[in-house]
Amino acid sequence: MTPLRMLLAALFIWTMLAVPVPAQTPLVVDVIEGHLDPTPVAIHNFLGENDQESQIGADISRVIANNLRASGLFAPIDQDAFIEEVVNIDLRPRFGDWRVINASALLVGRVSIDENDRLRVAFRLWDAATERQMHGLQFVASLDNWRRIAHKISDTIYERMTGETGYFDTRIIYVSESVGPNDEPIRRLAVMDQDGANPSFLTDPSYMALLPNYSPSAQQITYVSFRDGRATSYLYDLASGRQEALFDSDPALAAKGQSLSARFHPNGRELVVSAERRSGHDLFKFDLHTRTLRQLTDHPADDVEPSYAPDGGRVVFSSSRGGQSQLYVMGADGADPRRITFGQGRYTTPVWSPRGDLIAFTKQLDDQFMLGVVNADGSGEERILYEGYFVDTPTWSPNGRVLLFTRGDRTLDGATYSIWSVDLAGFNLRRLPTRGPASDPAWSPLID
Amino acid sequence: MRQALGFMLSLLIHGGLVVPALIAFPQARRTYEDLVVVPVELVTPAADTNVRSVQPEPKISPEDLASRTVPQPRLAPRPKPEPEIVSPSPKPEPAPDTLPDPAPEIEPENIRLKPEPAPQGLDLEALSALVDRSRETMAPIGEPETGETRQGAGPGTALTASLQAIASSHLNQCIRSNADAPSNLNLRVSVEIRLERNGRLSAQPRLVDQARIMNSSNSYLKVAGERALRGVIECQPYPLPPEHYQQWRVLVVNVDTQ
Amino acid sequence: MPGVERADPGKTYALTYLRAQSQILERDDTTMKRLSVVVALALSALLTACASQPEPVALQTEPRPEPVYQPEPEPQPAPEPEPEPARPTPGSVEDFEVNAGDRVFFALDRYDLSSEARVTLRRQAAWLASHSQARILIAGNCDERGTREYNLALGARRAGAVREFLIGQGVDPSRIATVSYGKERPICRESSERCWSINRNAITIIQSGAAS
């Protein structure tokens, strides 16, 4: 064959073969598992035009990286591995440089401080694979709120990449524990950012403060105060600092004994609380508007630790009415209590998940304590997320994906307490950074 | 021989596409990205920074303990909010922090960020359209390349099954599972991908029913679509047997990882 | 020194409590066990008698082989061994602590009174009868093996059980206040059963009206 013929032949074949190509049947592949590895994200230091801005930019990037890492869903990439140095966030990044270091997403940002000392933080979140911008947003705030901006950006990224609302712009109230000079217990309420930053005390050491809970607006808390000498359920307005004992509205009832930890109805206008009467502890509803109490349960056994469902229609509580402490669900008006746990051991501290489908609890069995979740209707198997020497006071992240809890570890000098987080799958167990022993965490709703 | 020729031809046509792209690219690098509007979100001072802090840090310092024995001094400032920390307004109302006003804020910003008219920005749509065209052009050229191995592409469901298994297990390592999304949602998505013989994508992957998924009010579905797209890109190169290239040139990946 | 003296009786009591318990356990046999369950149930009925409902309280549904609450004829030597050094002033707080005994102990997760606790409480009642100005605070305490709110409730039950018993012994209810400290005020800090058993108590504190 001459080359020309060959060429012609080739062209012929090419023409012939070109026809069936569009009709080619694709290979159909089903992917039903996927992986659950943390998503690698590159978080570039936010840019600034002077030292102050650059410093804040680096700090914001650090806080965001820390948040995302702690969630267990993201793996921030070490900045030393970065190839491209971003100098302008309004330019398209060199995506190849970011894919090479396995970044699935890239976060760049810019910090500027205007003449009024307002902080302006813009950011862009890029999908390094599809090379699309996933999000671009700007926040403006006062200078001292740079951390909150970092948390809000973290929430935005989390939400954009998981479909869930985030939980980084939140605070945690807890009990800071210590022992006074005369061996007396010191229990003070303290509050800090979700990542442990900005800790400060809410109560002074002259009385024990225990078991705090947030209102849905995060403006108020309830807690158990010993300022009157015994456990008393208090409402504490954070903005004004005003405190009041719930049962002051009913002196006759108050005289009958202690009152314990109150929890808010999702509407923010009612509370459910356990209080002692001559015959043990019963549950009461407290109306914040009318300042009146209504008794919900009346049983010789102790009914304690009530918690509302997120729809407000039901209450879960623990009770020893069946012998050992177990969990019960009843209508918010006290109707039709039904036991939902039947396992071995002592079940306590039920807390309804913000999603509504699960109830977290602690359980004591054979000298071990467990943190678990169970379907709110009692169906199915319970899931144990953590097991150890001691577990208490679970509290849900606002999106219902993470639990904080008090963990006690055995020491020669009695148990020492610290606050830990674990996700719903039982993974990503982490200790919250608190100064000294801490317990009774209560996670705020998302602020704003 | 024919192969060599096909290769040359392919090179020529590929080159005709790639070279301009290469020339265009650095240019594109320099252009501004068409900016998604950057809404201004106002951050009000922390709701609970209003709360007066008795002390900056929850730690029991010696002085703290000392104050225990002397009941007076420390207790005094307790119940009142500290004035300095209090924001202009006691509550986190957007008002005082609403800075001047959002409108003038956004505008100048946006204008500044707007792409300069001169160089045509590297528009993804345009790019993918370009790639699409290249795909069309390339397809016929690729064909002769695989001529010899076509016989292997015949019937053979066993072969299909094993290719599916290879691709599936490979993709399982790249696509993030949606197992953590609420279980009552249907998050099934499909991606169509076109591959080169070397296992790399020959075109941008295409999400089937993209408009519905990406504009869905269901944030989990949107994320599922993006995870699938990201996964098929990050999964390159695909370790599929070149001798059966014809069988896996086009993959439809159905992702349902709940 | 008062601090030390305060701590001592606790230890003594704990020891006597444990001793008493082991004696009982040695005598344990099945008939005794059954008998004890019956007695325990009867006691629980008594304890909850003030509850308005006659509902069965299943507190004792799972009988544990531990304390057998037999109304035995108190053969044990008074838990207070020999107070040879300077005798406390009669009617003083110290007198109460040493000669009546200021605390009683409870079994794990229980608030019913052991026979030994009753002996102590009868002495407390007698002391209070002869010192009618004295007012008391009964503090219920728990070991660290329970959640916080649960323990606050359990401690209240323990204080309440002591209160009811003292009232039954003729002490005027207006002289008695109760409080639960849950697990917040352990006497003994170690994480061991030795300490836990000491920390499961109700302590009677003379608040006023004692001789100095």
Task: Give a structural overview.
- The complex is a heterotrimer of chains A (448), B (258) and C (212).
- Helices cover 14% and strands 42% of the residues of chain A.
- Chain A has helices spanning 3-18, 51-71, 95-100, 146-162, 251-254; strands at residues 27-31, 39-43, 74-76, 105-113, 118-127, 132-142, 171-179, 185-193, 200-201, 209-214, 220-225, 232-237, 243-245, 263-264, 270-277, 280-287, 292-295, 303-308, 314-319, 326-331, 338-339, 346-352, 358-365, 368-375, 383-388, 390-396, 402-409, 416-423, 430-431, 438-443.
- Chain A starts with a helix and ends in a 5-residue tail after the last strand.
- Chain B has a 3-stranded antiparallel β-sheet.
- The longest helix of chain B is centred in the N-terminal third of the chain and has 29 residues, at 2-30.
- Chain B is mainly α and 258 residues long.
- With 212 residues, chain C is an alpha+beta fold.
- Chain C contains 6 helices and 4 strands; from the N terminus they run αααβαβαβαβ.
- Chain C has helices spanning 2-27, 30-47, 93-100, 115-130, 148-168, 193-199, and strands at residues 103-105, 135-141, 176-182, 201-208.
- Mean pLDDT of chain C is 72; it is low at 1-78.
- Chains in contact: A-B, A-C.
- Chains A and B meet through α1, β1, β5, β6 and α4 of A and α1, β1, α2, α5 and α6 of B.
- β1 of chain A pairs parallel with β4 of chain B.
Instruction: Average the pLDDT over all residues of chain B and give the rounded result.
Output: 59
DSSP strand count of chain A = 30
Spatial ordering of strands, largest sheet of chain A? 3-2-4-5-6
What gross morphology of chain B would you assign? elongated
Q: What is the number of independent domains of chain B?
A: 2
Uncertain ranges of chain A: 19-23
Which chains share the greatest interface?
A-B, 97 and 109 residues
Structure class of chain B: mainly alpha
SSE arrangement:
The complex is a heterotrimer of chains A (448), B (258) and C (212).
Chain A: H1 3-18, E1 27-31, E2 39-43, H2 51-71, E3 74-76, H3 95-100, E4 105-113, E5 118-127, E6 132-142, H4 146-162, E7 171-179, E8 185-193, E9 200-201, E10 209-214, E11 220-225, E12 232-237, E13 243-245, H5 251-254, E14 263-264, E15 270-277, E16 280-287, E17 292-295, E18 303-308, E19 314-319, E20 326-331, E21 338-339, E22 346-352, E23 358-365, E24 368-375, E25 383-388, E26 390-396, E27 402-409, E28 416-423, E29 430-431, E30 438-443
Parallel strand pairs in A: 2-3, 2-4
Antiparallel strand pairs in A: 4-5, 5-6, 7-8, 7-30, 8-9, 10-11, 11-12, 12-13, 14-15, 15-16, 16-17, 18-19, 19-20, 20-21, 22-23, 23-24, 24-25, 26-27, 27-28, 28-29
Helix pairs in contact in A: 2-4
Chain B: H1 2-30, E1 40-42, H2 62-69, H3 72-75, H4 94-97, H5 102-113, H6 124-145, H7 157-172, E2 189-194, E3 206-207, H8 210-214, H9 219-234, H10 245-248, E4 250-255
Antiparallel strand pairs in B: 2-3, 2-4
Helix pairs in contact in B: 1-6
Chain C: H1 2-27, H2 30-47, H3 93-100, E1 103-105, H4 115-130, E2 135-141, H5 148-168, E3 176-182, H6 193-199, E4 201-208
Parallel strand pairs in C: 2-3
Antiparallel strand pairs in C: 1-4, 2-4
Helix pairs in contact in C: 4-5
